[in-house]
Fold:
Amino acid sequence: MLQQKKKKKKKGKKKVDSPPDTKRVKPNGQMLTPYKPPPLVAAAEEAPPAPAPATSSSSSSSSSSSAFDVELTHDVSNSPPQPSPQPPLAPLAPPKPPPLATPPHDDKQEEQEAPYTIVDTVQRNTGTGHAIAGDAETKNFAKRGENFLSWMIAPLTINQFMDTYWENQPVLVQRPNSSTYFDGWFSTKELMKMVQDGKLTYGVDIDLAKYVNEERTTPSNDAPLVNTKATLETLNKAFVEEGHSVRLKCPQMHSNKLWKMIATMEDYLQYGGGANVYLTPSNAQGFAPHFDDIEAFVLQLEGQKRWRVYKPKTENDLLPRHSSKDLDQNDLVNDPDDIVIDVVLQPGDMLYFPRGWVHQAIAAGDQPSLHLTVSTARQQSWYNFMKQHLLPQALEQAFEDNLDMRRSLPVGYTRYMGVMNENSAMEYKKGVAHLQGGAAEGVSGMDSSSSSSSSSSSSSSSSSSTSSYSNATPLSYPGKHPNELREEFIGQCVKIFDSMMYSLNFDRASDEAARDFLHDRMPPVKSRKETRSSRQADRIASNPMAQTSWVRILRPDVLRLTTCEDSVQVWHSAANSRLWHEHSPQGIEFELDTGPAIEYLIGKYPEYIKIGEDWGIWNQAGLQLTEYEKIQEQLCICRDLWDQGLIMQKK
Structure:
């Protein structure tokens, strides 16, 4: 039995590069019970949001001019004067609600509009965010991510932010006494060092953009700059002499601090994240008004920037699937009340706005502006979940479960279905209703042989009015009008679609969505202990797993156990790149009978368990193994997980 199992193991164990066809099987080999919706009960009427793609073109960014000059070989003081600045926007409007020292939470104010501006007068420490997102040991990564988001939006709490602002409306947090709040995350000097080291390519890593006279130009996407290395000389000319904004895409590829920031937020939100950095000359604007398809957090790092955020015109504009094109200024200001935020951001300030809210920004003051935009929740709506995961698997399962789903479409259905037949169907229904009404009038109060002339004329006129409908389209079947066939066709579609409810598998769809999230997200930021105790610390040495080893999973949120008909898969993000989707989804495939053991190992986190001890789960898979066979099975599983960096060994 052992030899046969080992032979099977070599054959079945392989690296997974793409999702397998899935069936409804649990890790223990039992079939999943299909979801059966509760019966409908008649009731009375009742009242009824980089890895991750770089954030869309959220406005320009900022930085100190002295820092910029230090890194440039060109003397900015002797540069030709800048071109005429962008025509100024209208004077700053006062915030809609008065600034508050603390966010409102009184139940009596629930029906009032939440404030768009929060003024935080507390003097806050600079290094708190760095400490939270550092590489210290923790066993609750979701809580650490929550703490980090709390730090970013302070003084708002997570509950206040999620209940009031998330996907609902923008909010500006001003911190007049904490201008160094975001110090250390990124700077103009870091950007110039990347350029000097030849790390950035125009059109790939870095963009140049200018918005003047309602027209945006992006020379980095055209010759001679596109696909060439950015240099201090070309950047100096574009930024200082020509007034272009600089957008650094996917800065987390080059900055460990921003990598940690985004990975920490992903631990809590469970959406892939991304970032852009924007450096904008004084009194310049890089991008046209637009809205994005992401939830955006704008962190002002250096200089000043005036932001305007506009209320969506209709409910259909809220939470769009895709970002907008560049919008025209004349289409924005129809009503002053449409501008919900019009303010100059200072270092330490944070601005959040949901997808669908139009915004634009222009650098203020006499120095460049540098800001960081952190993005999340791109393409994470219920629509995406149902379209990509829930409905496709339901269709596949319904094909197996429902014989009607496998039948052919009716013969000749194209002759009575489609928009060209829709109008005749509507007219036919009107004619039938008219005929039925006339017949009812003729029967009431009189015999058919003695009907009144008015009834006869009414009936005859109705008949003549409908005769053209039946004569217009030849019958597809003897005795059946095409519109009767239309109703049968539509009724069958509704019947089949309704039966699909019994094939919905919400856990299977959620597993697929979780697998996609692991593909989207940043590689894990390992603590020093995790690095020392995992394969990352010893890539050359042979696999150290032994019968006496104590092991634990690296952490549950970097892997996902899924099943198919004859195997289980462990998908993970341990091998991800900081560049979004640089690699295909990564996973390991095991034989089905190992599922309970892997599930046991994951469920024991953060405890260490010993190889060689009885894990107490083998009989769940219907296996009767000797003690030696159990140990070999444990070693085989742990060695495969070790090779992918998914397991730690107790030192």
Q: What stands out?
A: The mean pLDDT is 80. The chain has 17 helices and 19 strands. The two ends are 34 Å apart (CA to CA).
